[in-house]
């Protein structure tokens, strides 16, 4: 998502019809009930969701959740099958099947479903696989209820009709690329896999994690796919939740029409697998291509919703639930041994996993860390949590639960989760009641009973050679399917071939942020959103990376990071404890043009949350001891950056494009020398110069009135003194387009190459911004874009590759980014530049234009569906100097884009002759491929972007070759 919303601007129905987004069919017009009302409410002090569960004759379940906060409907279908249902030797099958579900159906050709969703203005379109289930979801404008049911029912009932050896081979390639990206080329990916393999014996369905192994993924045969579909992808093993703005009576009729004719399968046999019992500690040592060592400890714990599950969930918060937790205070804050701590009770149906993960600071001992972890676990097993710790855990859980219901898609998924795991779709009130009923003594007893040293797995990950299984060859994708490869589970019916037309569309309205200015110059932006009792705030100042003084990269980020580390009246730990007690989130950070302090909480706690934010912003202490602690943490973060190929590619790309000395050329963290040189004087000088009310805006979105906000703003920010000196000028020169070149960063043994193909781009506020975004959607911005379709869906080179524009206040960048299989790095770049040339060769046709334009225009309400997104987007728009109506004017601007204007934007802003290719991968394998492209010069740089050596520059003619 690139934009996040804020205000009622309407686009006429006539324009929507012209764009292909709606029809005037009156029979599909939903009767809106109480516009703006939510299905979520509190009854008698208990949280509840108004819903209706219906079961069809074939066993298919649908749960209807009528929620009129936004003109959207979330479609969330769970198939009750995951790795827990996989046969021996077929690890990763459930996840592979998830991918195959998008490969086309009998009535919807391969690749068309995603395009149809784009054209309808769909958002959140994807699928996911967890150990116990697979889900498929998207959100559509509410006038497309029937379209969504047509798509979902055809996926469930007629996907198997179109699966053949070609589509299977393609998705095997895609999934194996996903494994390379998420496991082998991601820091600690093989560490997590090693932990599960130690926890579970051979044959247990959780042993191989969700992704499976290369060998098993590649071994899946077409007959296996068909057998899995016959067993599990049947209406009697699936549940659809519809949540949003629809008429339930109409929805019931349409569900019966589209799903009622599907044939039920045989009853799915229950999975009866005993939870393993460890009677002695297992210790595993793993070396990985990492900079910082990591300790992982894991135990088997009670299954989801079983006795002990809630107790251990609270224990996870007490031990490692953020900065107020025991392990954070001990390991990260006090002793400064750890970079980060994460503790989780991962609740599953066949038994849960309680895990503790600690990333060590550079040079720190895992043995010392493990000893301290053991001490804290032992302490909690003997002494119950304090009343404050229990209150903080419960507040965090309550806020997190309610926040998941803010998006209609999140609401739908939570309902499906409760339906499968608890057997009650409206279990939310009972779920929260579990935590209220748990006592501190029960938490202590659960820890003593479950988290024993002789019943755990300990994984010690250290830097070194990555040891992987033998390489499994990637066979070529067959040119065509063999005869008689397809079969059907359901009889065909002629009416399914016709795509349903949309109903009458509602006027397109976005959240409207109203501005006012306090006497000290602080801008206050109020965006009402009363659907749920939640409020989010973003205090933004024009103090980003572009404000860094020469020679002090990272100072903006360092300053923002220090704001939570103590004020004149609160210590860092008091800030953390107070936020946790409120169930609030409080974060600080810096970007290119701005720094922010953001907070979210329940409405009842928002006044206290905003008071905490105000204190952090206006009264930072910059204590020497805290600076020293944060300095070490930032040095550790620099090491972590070097572990991540996509991050390295981005850092190097910025340095090459912006050039030495430009404030955006350096990483946001800065460099080692700058971090070590930063002291209290530098931080305080930066803060006093840039953190001033006349250069700041407070954006608040949620369940709060304008009068309530004005009163709070006056009270908490009215005394923020405005300096008498003029605000500093922040004019960062835009980069000057240069000649094409190739930059290679060596990452020996990497199974993928991280690519960043970049060039100078437009700054924020250009008149043709909408044209730029529409053309980019077609080129590489959407899943259905030309580049991703060719490299992923046709060639199977990547898990995903996308293009986009970064538009800053004074400069901008265009980039195409993603990771590709090492051996096809050169081929991927050749195909990428062919797609660029194709976009520049001629304007889009009418069908493609309507689809990608609608994907920007009609999707707008779905992109502004949480308070955080609304506040964050308005804050960004203010920081880069955009007018008050920059968000509410989007429908008009997107509606005006034509094939000609989008084509002009392509020709203006995407010049292949000036694009720089940055590749982070195995030099020995990648360099020959890059040299074969004929694109010169070829530079070798280190992970910070410093030049190692370079070949002689080529002639201008060769520089323009792909």
TrEMBL record:
Q: Which SUPFAM superfamilies match?
A: LuxS/MPP-like metallohydrolase (SSF63411)
* InterPro entries named among the record's database cross-references: Metalloenz_LuxS/M16 (IPR011249), MPP/UQCRC_Complex (IPR050361), Pept_M16_N (IPR011765), Peptidase_M16_C (IPR007863)
Write down the Pfam families for this protein, in alphabetical order.
Peptidase_M16 (PF00675), Peptidase_M16_C (PF05193)
Q: Which residues belong to any copy of the Peptidase M16 N-terminal domain?
A: 62-201, 529-645
A GO molecular-function descriptor: metal ion binding
Which residues are in the Peptidase M16 C-terminal domain?
220-396, 680-855
Q: Which UniProt keywords apply?
A: Signal
What family does the entry list? Belongs to the peptidase M16 family.
Protein name per the record: Peptidase M16
């Amino acid at each position: 998502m690139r934009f996040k919303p804020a205000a009622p601007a309407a686009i006429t129905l006539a324009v929507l019809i012209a764009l292909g987004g709606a029809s005037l069919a009156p029979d599909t017009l939903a009767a809106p009930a109480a516009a703006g009302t939510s299905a979520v409410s509190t009854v008698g002090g208990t949280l509840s969701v108004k819903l209706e569960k219906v079961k069809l004759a074939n066993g298919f379940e649908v749960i209807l959740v009528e929620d009129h906060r936004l003109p959207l409907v979330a479609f969330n279908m769970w198939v009750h099958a995951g790795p827990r249902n996989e046969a021996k030797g077929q690890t990763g099958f459930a996840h592979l099947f998830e991918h195959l579900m998008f490969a086309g159906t009998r009535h919807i050709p391969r690749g068309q479903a995603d395009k149809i969703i784009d054209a309808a203005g769909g958002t959140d379109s994807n699928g996911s696989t967890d150990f116990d289930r697979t889900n498929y979801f998207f959100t559509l404008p509410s006038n497309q209820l029937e379209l969504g049911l047509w798509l979902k029912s055809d996926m469930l009932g007629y996907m198997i009709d179109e699966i053949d050896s070609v589509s299977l081979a393609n998705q095997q390639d895609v999934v194996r690329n996903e494994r390379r990206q998420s496991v082998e080329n991601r820091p600690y990916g093989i560490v997590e896999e090693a932990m599960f393999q130690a926890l579970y014996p051979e044959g247990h369905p959780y042993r191989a994690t969700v992704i499976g192994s290369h060998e098993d993924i590649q071994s899946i045969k077409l007959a296996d796919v068909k057998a899995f579909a016959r067993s599990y992808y049947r209406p009697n093993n699936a549940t659809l939740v519809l949540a949003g703005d629809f008429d339930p009576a109409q929805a019931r009729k349409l569900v019966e029409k589209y799903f009622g004719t599907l044939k039920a399968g045989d009853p799915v046999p229950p999975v009866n697998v005993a939870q393993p019992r460890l009677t002695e500690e297992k210790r595993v040592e793993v070396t990985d291509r990492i900079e910082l060592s990591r300790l992982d400890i894991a135990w088997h714990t009670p299954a989801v919703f079983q006795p002990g599950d809630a107790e251990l969930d609270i224990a996870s918060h007490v031990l490692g639930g953020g900065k107020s937790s025991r392990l954070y205070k001990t390991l990260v804050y006090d002793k400064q041994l750890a970079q980060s701590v994460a503790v989780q009770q991962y609740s599953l149906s066949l038994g849960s996993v309680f895990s503790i993960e600690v990333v060590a600071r550079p040079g720190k001992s895992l043995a010392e860390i493990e000893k301290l972890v053991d001490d804290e676990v032992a302490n909690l097993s003997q002494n119950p949590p304090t009343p404050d710790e229990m209150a903080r855990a419960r507040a965090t859980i309550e806020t997190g639960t309610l926040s998941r219901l803010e998006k209609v898609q999140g609401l739908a998924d939570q309902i499906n989760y409760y339906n499968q795991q608890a057997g009650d779709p409206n279990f939310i009130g009972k779920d929260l009641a579990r935590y209220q009923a748990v006592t501190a003594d029960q938490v202590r007893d659960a820890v003593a009973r479950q988290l024993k040293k002789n019943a755990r797995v300990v994984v010690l990950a250290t830097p070194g050679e990555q040891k992987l299984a033998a390489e499994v060859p990637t066979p070529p994708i067959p040119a065509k399917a063999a005869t008689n490869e397809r079969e059907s589970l359901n009889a065909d019916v002629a009416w399914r071939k016709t795509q349903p037309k949309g109903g009458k569309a509602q006027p397109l309205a976005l959240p409207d942020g109203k501005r006012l200015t306090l006497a000290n110059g602080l801008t206050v932006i109020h965006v009402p959103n009363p659907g749920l009792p939640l409020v989010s705030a973003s205090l933004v100042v024009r103090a980003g990376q572009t404000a860094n003084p020469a020679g002090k990269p990272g100072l903006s980020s360092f300053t923002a990071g220090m704001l939570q580390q103590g004020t004149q009246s609160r210590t860092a730990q008091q800030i953390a404890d107070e936020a946790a007690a409120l169930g609030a989130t409080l974060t600080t950070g810096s970007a290119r043009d701005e720094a922010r302090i953001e907070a979210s909480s329940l409405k009842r706690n928002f006044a206290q949350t905003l008071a905490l934010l105000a204190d952090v912003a206006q009264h930072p202490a910059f204590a020497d001891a805290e600076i020293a602690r944060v300095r070490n943490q930032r040095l550790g973060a620099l090491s972590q950056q070097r572990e991540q190929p996509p991050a390295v590619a981005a850092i190097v790309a910025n340095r090459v494009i912006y050039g030495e000395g430009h404030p955006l050329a350096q990483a946001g963290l800065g460099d080692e020398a700058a971090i070590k040189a930063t002291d209290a004087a530098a931080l305080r000088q930066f803060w006093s110069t840039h953190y001033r009310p006349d250069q700041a805006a407070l954006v608040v979105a949620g369940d709060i009135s304008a009068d309530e906000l004005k009163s709070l703003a006056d009270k908490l920010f009215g005394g923020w003194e405005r300096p008498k000196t003029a605000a500093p000028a922040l004019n960062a020169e835009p980069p000057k387009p240069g000649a094409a070149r190739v930059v290679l960063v060596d990452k020996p043994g990497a199974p993928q190459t991280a690519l960043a193909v970049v060039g100078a781009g437009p700054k924020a506020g250009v008149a043709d911004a909408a044209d730029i975004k529409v053309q980019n959607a077609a080129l590489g911005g959407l899943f259905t874009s030309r580049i991703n379709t060719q490299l992923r869906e046709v060639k199977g080179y990547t898990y995903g590759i996308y293009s986009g524009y970064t538009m800053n206040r004074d400069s901008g960048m265009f980039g195409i980014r993603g990771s590709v299989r090492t051996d096809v790095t050169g081929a991927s770049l050749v195909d990428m530049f062919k797609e660029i040339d194709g976009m520049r060769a001629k304007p889009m046709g009418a069908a493609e234009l309507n689809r990608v334009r609608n994907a920007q225009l009609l999707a707008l309400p779905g992109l502004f569906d949480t308070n955080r997104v609304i506040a964050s987007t308005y804050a960004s728009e203010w920081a880069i100097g955009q007018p008050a109506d920059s968000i509410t004017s989007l429908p008009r601007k997107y509606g005006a884009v034509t094939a000609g204007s989008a084509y002009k934007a392509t020709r203006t802003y995407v010049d292949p002759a000036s694009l720089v290719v940055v590749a982070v991968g195995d030099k020995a394998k990648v360099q020959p491929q890059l040299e074969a492209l004929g694109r010169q010069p070829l530079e070798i740089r280190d992970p910070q972007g410093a030049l190692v050596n370079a070949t002689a520059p080529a002639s201008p003619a060769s520089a323009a070759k792909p």
